[in-house]
Amino acid sequence: MKLTAKARYAVTALADIAAFGDDGPVALSDIAARQVISATFLEQLFAKLRKAGLVESRRGATGGYVLTAAPAEIRVSDIVRAVDEPIRTTACQPGEHIGCAGTTARCLTHDLWDELGRHIDVFLSSVTLADITDKKVLGRAMVGEPIEALEVVK
């Protein structure tokens, strides 16, 4: 399982604005060059990000995009949802009576993958753009005491 390109690039682009936008609006061409992302693709993403209220556009020679809130207030989960990318860990269709196995039944491991999806959502909801730019993401998933390495018994 992996996040889609839309979600990854949207988070990367807004992190770029958080990192480089202190002096004013950031042009999409600058984000595209720094992050090696297609400017055309960024335009599509920023239409959705603007509609979700995460960024505002500024016109003119020094125009570009600015965040509508402080980086510490913008959660990664909000960005992912803004570009219409649900994080799915099962093949079940939400709201439909189709299970993981293509029938009405759920697969044997459905609850495992569904719970993983919940953990991913909780984690992404706990990380902000400020956490990314301040390099405070590593170790955030640790809950309680670290798990010691398990020895594999044959």
Automatic annotation (TrEMBL):
GO molecular function: DNA binding; DNA-binding transcription factor activity
Gene Ontology CC: one annotated term: cytosol
PROSITE patterns the record matches: HTH_RRF2_1 (PS01332), HTH_RRF2_2 (PS51197)
Pfam families named among the record's database cross-references: Rrf2
Keywords: DNA-binding
SUPFAM superfamilies attached to this UniProt entry: Winged helix' DNA-binding domain (SSF46785)
PANTHER family: HTH-TYPE TRANSCRIPTIONAL REGULATOR ISCR, WINGED HELIX-TURN-HELIX TRANSCRIPTIONAL REGULATOR, RRF2 FAMILY
Protein name per Swiss-Prot or TrEMBL: Rrf2 family transcriptional regulator
Organism for this UniProt entry: Aquisalinus luteolus
